[in-house]
Amino acid sequence: MKNPVSRYDAIIIGAGFSGLYQLHLLRDKLDLRCLLIEAGDGVGGTWYWNRYPGARCDSPSHSYSYYFSEDLLKKWTWTERYPGQPEIESYLNFVADELGLRPNICFGQTVNQCKYIQDQNYWHITTADGIEFQTKYLIAAVGCLSMSNKPVIKGIETFTGSIFHTGNWPKEKINFFGKSVAVIGTGASAIQAIPLIAEQAEKLTVFQRTPNYSVPACNHKLSAETSKKYKKDWRSTLEIMQTSRNGLPWLEGDQSLDEIDEPRRTKLLEDAWKKGGLGFREAFKGTLRNRKSNSIMSRFVKDKIAEKIDNPEVAKLLTDFDHPFASKRPPLDTNYFETFNKKNVALVNLNEQPIKNATPNGLVTKSETFNLDVLVLATGFDAMTGAIEKLGVTGRSGTSINDFWQDGPTTYLGVHVPHFPNFFVLAGPGSPSVLTNMPRSIEFNVEWVGDCIKYLENNGLSYIEADLSASDKWSKDNQKLAHETLFVDAEHSWYLGANIPGKPRLFYPYAGGFPRYKAACNEAKSQDYDGLIVG
Prior knowledge:
It is built from 15 helices and 20 strands. It is an alpha/beta fold. β5 (122-127) and β6 (132-140) form a beta hairpin. The chain has helices at residues 17-29, 46-49, 70-75, 85-98, 188-200, 224-232, 234-243, 264-275, 291-306, 312-318, 386-389, 401-404, 438-458, 468-482, 514-526, and strands at 6-13, 34-38, 105-107, 111-117, 122-127, 132-140, 162-165, 180-184, 203-208, 215-216, 332-333, 345-349, 355-359, 362-365, 369-371, 374-377, 393-394, 423-425, 464-466, 532-534.
């Protein structure tokens, strides 16, 4: 006999920052019967799966926190300027326990089908294990950077060594001592992992296609006095983050580099570089909108990086940038470039030496064979859309979200999708998400979803979905905003879907900045959810 299907008011998929807060808000503020479904066996989202060596946040710890609760802010104390994966995972476990969320979380279940039953206005959800649920409201909190991108390498199934992907790293500690290791990729994950792997491996070979700018993290432990000050000043910090274009605890500089004469300009750049972190990117006005200013900053960063590398040929490869500085989110590094001065580290240019195939013993490029014990794939994610498209979402009239998005994702406000009633995407395509300090965008999106559902419940309404014409306009307007910046100059950026073969080439996150995004959402709400169909 088939088990009865469990019915909920709201089902949330994903137990990261967005899913945990959404569960708390809907359950404890709106008194809805809620379930959160999570594929892993613990909370954390991105910070549950990305546990590779050196995994670390690039937003300052005191800003990379929930701000909806003063109690949570006061009870938790961060230990570093930029928290590492274990500390962030511990923080999210602390939140889950403080808010008593675990009884409403179903762990170890992967959702693979979400079907809207139109005549009864509910969603039918099925997991890979065949467990079924029904819900009125369905919220995808699956994350922007959670679907690993695995490169196609001929013969990879024959490799007898170990293979790890930075985006799906095992819980147990990996021992690289005495081993020959290859890392494919030089993005943010690789830049964090490579220095630590190089400390252990007998031989490390890094395969690079596109070199990346990076800024020194200048990470350090936080003193008790500093932590106390952060807790005391949290309201003023929040005010700055809500005003900042990127949701970070500082504002953009008031002068552009092309307005500042030498030698003052160089001194200001040097001072900002010594402080490190993403604050360097915003130290001057319009770095991503003023091509001349960006050129000055790009040259400065390139020169600073080259100074760290002993071998001129290696320096040339690591600084042969094909995009303006910050048109990709610049990683923060600790001794990344200096690692290439080590005798046990080699760099391979994939543009000249493409990988032909794998063998049982390693990799073969155009003219060289590499015997390997371990292969690390630091090849990033199918960002923004990949995790959503794995949910098997089908809306009105059997419309598949994968088919609807085949020419690129169309959303309204980055949350709602036409033809998919009562379906909400947190930090989705068309929202600021990855261009910001994520918790600020997440909190705003979660509260927006809560307000939408409260509006329906209080007014006896059954559904809410995006109007197609409003969604088309939102998506087209975002492409125009992106072309007002230098983001689109980074042709190989995952912001543009360029890292996934066949993925539509367009700008995926919202490019107008966090304050402008919030203003657009608030304007729609003030006009009884203009751009949305309710009934």
